[in-house]
Every structure is written in structure tokens, then in C-alpha cells.
Amino acid sequence: MRLLEEILEYNKKFVENKDYKEYLTEDKYPAKKVVMVTCMDTRLVELATKSLNLSSGDVKVIKNAGAILSHPYGSILRSLIIAVYLLKAEEIIVMGHYDCGMQNIDTNSLIKEMWKRGVSDETFKILKYSGIDLKEWLQGFEDVKDSVKHDIDLIVNHPLIPKNVYVHGLVIDPDNGKVDLIENGYDRRLNDAKLNF
Predict the structure, then answer these.
(1) Alpha-carbon distance 163 to 20, whole Å?
(2) CDD domains in the record, alphabetically (predicted)?
(3) What is the pLDDT of residue 186?
């Protein structure tokens, strides 16, 4: 049986048996008024929320490769802005993780793999002449803590993110769920208030 057939068969039984009931939430708004950006790493599918005692309905979760915010007006920041203004989120968590595949990524190998899997030389040329530097676009980071700090600064300094939104930075160990605090948004807000006093 192919994967799609397998998951659709499971879904049919899931609905028939009413297994969905344990995942129902009161509404679409995060109960704890928080949105989290984290990595798409399979080890974090449940660990990222369970390690923080966040359940279904507590948090909005946005995932991408490396939890990297690569553009101030890209889809991740758009999602954060929507979460803040339309979904009542008052806090943002950026959660990177140790042993991330985006750390020190070899973009040359990645581009060679694209070529092996059928991306033509013509496509690479078109991208280059269009001003797209694939190596830069695919680039990850050297240090996960620095990457999380970069994301926090991008969010905190974004002109569309209200100043009363707390932005926290965490790095999780995918082997045991231990979380290291990189930035406490409450402290940052307090320090900003003192500087502006």
C-alpha cells in the first residue's frame, strides 16, 4: 500500500471512530495567546509543544527549515502578524534546536542534488540572471543561538509588530526536550521601558 492510500484509510477510521474528539478545541484562537515559530524537524512534531506543556488549542505553530526568518515581509512574518492582529496572540516564541540540518548547510551539495534530480542548467541560469543567488537563499546558519537572536531582533523591530507583544527565544535539545532560554521577552520589554523613561 502506498503512503497516501495508507493515511487516507487511517483517516477514514479516525473519523468513523470519532478519535478526533480528543483534539477538538473551543475555537481557532490560541488559548494561551501564543504563537511559536520552530523548525520542521520531525523530532519536534510533538516535542516542541509537549516540552513546554502546550496542548492542542494552546498555541499556533509555524514551522519551516531551521526556524529561520529570512525576509521581513516573507510568509513567516506575515503569519506572525496575522496571529497577533486576528488570532489574539500576545506572545511569540522562536524555538530553534540543536543538531539542526540548517546549521552549516552545504549549499553546493544541495544545488548538485537539485541538478541530479532534474533541475536544468537553464533553470539555474535563469535564476542567476533574475538576481537570485541560490547559495544565499538556501543558506542556513552557523550558530543556532545567534540564529534565534536574529529572528527575535527581526520580529521586535518589525514596524507591524506591536511593541506590547512579548518575543521569547528558546533552543531545544531534540534528544531530551531540554530547553535553553536565549531571550526572555518580558525582560527585554522591561529594559526597553527603562531606556525610554
Answers:
(1) 38
(2) beta_CA_cladeD (cd03379)
(3) 87
Residue 81 is which amino acid? Answer: I
Q: Concatenated DSSP letters for 50-71?
A: HTTT--TTTEEEEEEGGG----
Dist CA 49 CA 148 (whole Å): 17
Q: Are 147 and 66 within 8 A, CB to CB?
A: yes
Inter-residue contact 61 to 48 (CB < 8 Å): yes
Confidence grade of residue 56 (pLDDT, cut at 50, 70, 90): confident
Strand order in the sheet with 59-64: 59-64, 34-39, 91-97, 166-172, 179-183
pLDDT at 94 over 80: yes
Partner residues linked to 188 by β-bridges = none
Cell numbers placing 56: 492542542
pLDDT of residue 79: 98
